[in-house]
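If your schedule permits, I should be very grateful for your opinion on a structural question. Kindly check, if you would, that the fold set down in the tokens agrees with what the sequence suggests. Thank you for your consideration; the sequence and its tokens are set out here:
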Amino acid sequence: MSVETNTYDRLWADTWGDQQYYGPVHRCQNKALVKLIAKLDVRTVLDVGCGAGDNLAALAQAMPHLILTGTDVSREALALAARRVPKARLSCLDAQKEKLDERFDLVLCNQVVEHLIDDTAAFRNLARMAKSWVLVATMRGHMRRSELTIGHIRNYSDFELRAKAENAGLEVVDIFGWGFPFYSPLYRTAIEWLPSGPPEGKFGIIQKSIANFLYHLYALNIPRHGDVVTMLARPRESTV
């Protein structure tokens, strides 16, 4: 097992915890991704870096007809995903080094590429596994201190994100942000002032209440603006 895999096993076991279930950004993004995917004509979906299966579970509930597959470098995360989404096919995979030997209507990669040393190789593998669509969500803007502690290597500009997608053989259809102003920059900056930084591990009653308040506040964000960036692309014919 690699050092990187050990790191993400620890993060899933100890750090991310309830943030994935109650965290307002995760909840908002999960809802938005499901809404966007519902507009695409897809049946087979691959979630690369599926983590504990939050997106897969939401897709399974909203669109039961989907055939779902998930991959992750962390076996700890895959064990959590298997309990949450028993209908999904799950496997351990490092998208920087390998790909599945099949193609899917949609390849989803949510909050993963900012963690990868060789994101260029990962973008190529995403493109090679996609029949119709690639959907990537990541971060842009100034990187905060707490992001470094959870393995972020970079934040993207729209130009860099588009360039890496196009170099991988993808045609970018849309790039848009989320979070302005209440998450980014307001909350995203203010939380760095706390000695403990963003909440980790198990949420208590107070943390759950704050998270729920922020979830509803974030509904007032200006659409398509902010540092959480989503890119929708499709493979060019030469990549298919």
Remarks:
- The mean pLDDT is 90.
- The first strand starts at residue 44 and ends at 48.
- Residues 69 and 132 are 16 Å apart (CA to CA).
- The beta strands are 44-48, 67-72, 89-92, 104-110, 130-139, 170-178, 228-235.
